[in-house]
Design a protein that fits this description.
alpha/beta, six-stranded mixed sheet, two-stranded parallel sheet, about 45% helix
Length: about 160
């Protein structure tokens, strides 16, 4: 657990055409929030967004969360596979200033031992200003498998971004 003087501002963004129209419930976003709220002290302020798989809308949402909402961390879920509508990595790269490919590499390595098709994920991460943005897979079970091992690197990256 990391102690900070002020609560972090964290956003979780679920990218799903079907969940955004109410066809099914968003289970991945709440799982991200559950993990991150317990990982930081004081508990972070969490913003949530649920939007369709539209590259421009995703990029605009990420820009707003970084530049206007001043989030320290933005975690997306969904849209990282090979399907034509999976555009989260492209939208993320549209707004990143510096890519951190090790996050995606680590997630694929952790997941591959459990699910051989995990190598189809194109998830990435990087920074925009003082914000860390990370793409996670859309499967709720994969959230814990991927996010928990990343916490040490997330904490260290946030310290660097905040000049510590």
């Amino acid at each position: 657990m990391v102690k900070t003087s002020l609560p972090l501002r964290i956003a979780r963004v679920t990218l799903s055409d079907r969940a955004s129209t109410g066809v099914y419930a968003d289970l991945s976003g709440p799982e991200i929030e559950r993990i991150l709220v317990t990982a930081f002290t004081p508990a972070p302020v969490v913003l949530s967004r649920l939007i369709p798989d539209e590259r421009g809308l995703i990029a605009d949402t990420l820009r707003t969360l970084c530049d206007d909402e001043h989030c320290d961390l933005v975690v997306t879920t969904g849209g990282t596979g090979p399907a034509p509508r999976d555009v989260t990595p492209e939208a993320t790269r549209d707004v990143l200033e510096r890519e951190l490919p090790g996050f995606g590499e680590a997630m694929r390595a952790v997941s591959f031992s459990k699910v051989p098709t995990a190598i189809l994920s194109r998830a990435t991460a990087g920074t925009r200003g003082r914000t860390l943005i990370i793409n996670l897979p859309g499967n709720p079970r994969a959230i814990g498998e991927c996010l928990l091992p990343l916490l040490p690197a997330i904490r260290e990256c946030l310290r660097h971004l905040n000049g510590q």
